[in-house]
Amino acid sequence: MTSAVLEVVDLEIRLRAGPVLVEKLSLSISAGSMTALVGESGSGKTLSAMAIMGLLPPGINRSGGSIHVCGDDVSNGLGAFLGRDVTMVFQEPMTSLDPVMRIDRQLLEARRRRVRCRGRRGRAWCVGALSEVGIDDAERVAAAFPHELSGGMRQRVLIAMGLAPEPRLILADEPTTALDAINRRDALELLASATRKGAGVLLITHDLGSVRGWADHIVVMRGGRCCEQGPTLQVLENPKHPYTKGLLECVPQRGHRGPLPELPAGG
After folding, report:
1. Are the C-beta atoms of residues 91 and 129 closer than 8 Å to each other?
2. In Å, how far are 51, 127, 151, 194, 264 from 201, measured between CA atoms?
3. 1-85+168-267 domain in CATH 3.90.580.10?
4. Quick one: which of 57, 127, 199, 258 could link to 194 by a disulfide (CB 3.0–4.6 Å)?
5. What's the whole-number mean pLDDT along residues 166-186?
């Protein structure tokens, strides 16, 4: 194995006694880098991330391939890595945050997977963690419940929870989908800040255009298969696969008028 924080080789996911949903997916993420897993809805992006986390829903199984985190084989489950060295930022904060638990308690639960943190020390850490993700009124937010916060604030809280145990690998599943342009950029900057601290990040997104300047590497999926991957600028400036070209053509350009082009049929 290499020194990659994540190494996925020939991952296969299928319905139990049914068709293959993800076929022969391979990717690698080094410490301090971000890889974007890109594709339309239903391409297998989120399923692949859930397989890495060991969180596939009932009736769907990993049927082949291997998953290594920091050199250890975790194909059958992350074990002690889960929630400490490997964390996940989910797409929808309102279903990911506990609605009856204050924000500070949820943050501390994540933090305690790495270090003991309670009392005044824990409270001070929570306020600092929220400030670091760009929340101005951190003391009020720490004492609030999720429904008392805006969507942008809830997403920042989720990212703060993902960063709390100082993980070596972060999986972020469409973390910017429901955000406006400013909050979207801020969320990506927070994930990029984790790479500067040495973490590897897998960013799952349907928006190929949004990864420019953020991701180091791009993996493009369609129909459960990888159709192209490579360094970000190489893929964006010189795409090889017709589907990648179609995705890029569908990114709205300033001053564009009229309908967007249709994506090419087939794999």
Report:
1. no
2. 16, 24, 22, 8, 29
3. no
4. 199
5. 85
